Task: structure prediction
Amino acid sequence: MRRFTAGALLFCVICGSRSIAQDSTAKALSANRKATSQKESDGAKPDAKKGDDALKNAFGGGVDTNPKEPVTTEITAEQAFFDSGKSIGIFSGHVIVKDPRFNLQADKLTVYLGSGEAHGLDHAVAEGNVGMVREAPGQDGGAPVRSVGRADTAVYTAGNGNVELKGTPRVQSGLNSHIATSPDTVMVINQAGQLTTNGPSRTEIRQEPKNQPPQQPKP
Result:
């Protein structure tokens, strides 16, 4: 397995999230979720406000979107291919991205750089078993909340900062989930951290019984 260090990576999920670019500062992905339905759990009625806040903070809160120091992102893959003529970089084979703000994994990651004077990132595509994990500080000093995003494909566009999750995407923050109910559903996370879902989806808001520690989603 080979290890590569990139100047910056912004991506998604999963997830952003959040992208990849050489010698540029990464921006962080965040997601602002609006609950569309409620689900009772353990015989108790969920607290809609708490559930909505948890989804709202998925891939949000606690992320420095304008770091003052350079950010080092490490990309590990079985293979890497660079074509300076076409300005692309392709990482394949159990791709793992480790960034101070998030972790990303996929079967394949393709980075497209701008041509001519635009040497920065144009867009990046993660394909195959895409997953993004990030831990945000808990509310009121509580335990950190793990957010997990999953999709078949994730596309980051540098021009507008949008991240598109395709292929039955889903986002889970704590016990709360936002799930596509059709493979054609597309979730778009913009640069401001707002989530727009185009297509059928379901939102589940759950509440643990009192005196029980909250569970965290598994990556």
Q: What stands out?
A: The CA atoms of residues 77 and 95 lie 5 Å apart.
